[in-house]
UniProtKB/TrEMBL annotation, chains A, B, C, D:
It comes from the Bacteria. The lineage of its organism: Bacteria, Bacillati, Actinomycetota, Actinomycetes, Kitasatosporales. This is TetR/AcrR family transcriptional regulator. Pfam families: TetR_C_11, TetR_N. The keyword Nucleotide-binding does not apply. Residues 14-74 form the HTH tetR-type domain. Keywords: DNA-binding, Transcription, Transcription regulation. SUPFAM superfamilies: Homeodomain-like, Tetracyclin repressor-like, C-terminal domain. Signal peptide: none annotated. InterPro entries: Homeodomain-like_sf (IPR009057), HTH-type_TetR-like_transc_reg (IPR050109), HTH_TetR (IPR001647), Tet_transcr_reg_TetR-rel_C_sf (IPR036271), TetR_C (IPR011075). Residues 37-56 bind DNA.
DNA sequence: ATATAACCGAGACGGTACGTCGGGTCTTGCA
DNA sequence: TGCAAGACCCGACGTACCGTCTCGGTTATAT
């Protein structure tokens, strides 16, 4: 199990790391994931191929890293800017009106998913994660799950406030809200709009069955 | 457009077509989608590479075709066998108990998705469709949408019977039911079980908000 | 040793045969021998590939046939025109002046070899014959040897007339005259000119050694 | 011109170069030129195809290189061995008896041409050079012309010694001697023997015309 | 202050697969 | 049955990238 020469990360060139991230994201955006190659990234970044292979195990890993870095930077900026993020990464607002809060957040999510700039690499990464379990786990753990936890938090708060039934499992509830958006985005079955986000919230909150009082 | 010599499909070898389908499915199952090559499919099928390139534009298209063929055959058999399918392709039962009917069908879906035999090619196809819009559209149109329509039908019947509120949009409702399963399957966030299917049905039908009468 | 279905040559389409010859010669002239393909010949001749494979064993054979046909036609025309040919195929003149007669014929040969129109296919055929003994034998027997025999005849006549030494072997003598031209043409060592033809005749007739009487 | 990335020849692998030469010569000898493929050479040499394409433009060029290398090595060995070569590459002997010297050398040439081991690749190269002017020029310049110059030297010496007429053009004379051998070898008209070499020398030296003193 | 060890750019290397071309065989439908 | 058409299996083409491997060259500690 010789680790086969672990490179010394203290001597790693930050300049190269950044250039590789940038080149990878740019190329995926321009020509798509499939036609993005390690050689192409290296050439574009002005970097030797070995420098990529030394630090990443695969093309997908490079891209993932680039994403995580971007996400981290954005989070840092958000935190720096102080305020609670909307569609971003920070926290779901709690105005007391659960429906309104969820619609706000899910509309922001819709906008984020519909953003042309990030769509290609995002899809590529998701697709790769679907096929490659290890990468998928990383994707979920680092990018998706933190977001989902925000919903858990918000829903628990709503339960505590009596706005959501106590026998609801927040994890299931959150998937009822999030999954339909993901579904439309990934599979492109129907357009992903604000109206749809609203409808999802309304249907999920209200349920399908006739209400006793109605 | 691109005339580029359309081959004469009346002279196409059915033997080869079938062999290619079989080889493609077998290889994807055995070594995974990424390591399945056109060359490998051709060799396994005992066929010239050109025969694949003559009739399909890509590896994904071959696989899609193989799936459609399989699905069509199963549908034909199901129709021949007469009965209403459960997890299959035919029809959602209507016993009058919507929750029970949905749980039955969704549990079957869970089993289908968890089937080790079809998982690899199914994931591969889905992933490819996520990145390639044309393929994705074909995937949705031919494999997914027909299934979804069954839910629309069943939900409308439930509405007519007063078991579902009239202001519910069946399309949205169905996505509330299906999307969470798809979500767990594609992203592998948490295990996809019968219990989860049941929970989804219960949460979706009942809604998150406290019921007036409760 | 079943001849594997000998085709019935009485039912052969003369139209196709000619079209194939023409297409073959045209293509070799236009794109060169190497880039001339059986498929290309068939397409150009408006003929099925099988029609070529039915009657010829190889691309070279088609070309050879085309040449023989052309040569035969020219010979027929020459014979019809009555006169003795010069550089052609018929007969070497005998004016009593051997040197002059040979120069006349060899100059005509030079012109023939330098003819741009026939050069490409001629070279191709020669080259193919150099590598493929069977084809080479055909080439020699049908195209070259008949020409060489004319020299034998003329040289014997010269011997009979006392213009050439009796101990000369006409076969060797003829090769002394012809081979240098062929050599320059095939290997492109130096330009192939009338002056060279004359020089070859002079050197061969006079020999290299000092003449006793000189 | 064609920038197209010139490879850095200082980093070229000598091991590969040699292996490719050897494989090429071996294959041409074993299966003939036409059935020798780049792919086959690469496989036999244990080399990637790209390594061949990186350094040579064509199969013929590989073979030519292999020949030149072999010839150069033999020349070096001959030079090292010190002595004057016979059929080889070094020098035509001058014993004062021109006829005998020429017969010696031409007989050696006959043996060389009849050598079964080198015949196939030699013919292939010659044939390729006949069709491809660039390759032919290389063939002539590097392999043929150096040999021919030896004859020029020897014939001039003979002229100086009064053994050959002063009005003889050594270049034409040499072709009178060499071309007939080449002719028989390339076109396989008649067997190429020592006796023929002798006859060519005798006919060329003595000439065809009756000698004054005879 | 200088060795000496790493990362780094560059790119040649042995490979695998690509998508295309053409070879030679076989089948179909027309004359 | 000959023929035009062209699908078929196959082998090779020349190219693109893979991941590994040298090669100098530049840093950047550790003597």
């Amino acid at each position: 199990m010789a680790p086969h020469k672990a490179p010394d990360s203290t001597r790693r060139s930050d300049r190269s790391r950044r250039a590789i991230h940038d080149a990878a994201l740019a190329l995926v955006g321009e020509v798509g994931y499939a036609r993005t190659t390690i050689e192409g990234i290296a050439a574009r970044a002005g970097v030797g191929k070995q420098t990529i292979y030394r630090w990443w195990p695969s093309k997908a890993a490079v891209l993932m890293d680039a994403f995580l870095e971007t996400a981290a930077r954005q989070a840092a900026e958000a935190a720096g800017a102080g305020g609670a993020e909307t569609g971003g990464t920070y926290e779901i607002p709690d105005t007391g009106d659960l429906a309104a809060d969820l619609k706000l957040v899910l509309r922001a999510t819709v906008d984020e998913l519909n953003d042309a700039a990030t769509e290609a690499p995002m899809r590529a990464l998701a697709a790769e994660g679907i096929v490659d379990p290890a990468l998928g786990a990383q994707f979920v753990e680092n990018l998706l799950e933190p977001q989902l936890q925000l919903y858990v938090t918000r829903l628990r708060a709503a339960q505590d406030a009596g706005q959501v039934r106590a026998d609801i499992d927040p994890r299931v509830a959150l998937e009822l809200l999030i999954a339909p958006l993901t579904h439309r985005w990934l599979l492109r079955t129907l357009p992903l709009t604000h109206a749809y986000a609203d409808a999802v919230v309304d249907h999920a909150l209200g349920g399908l069955l006739p209400r006793a009082g109605a």
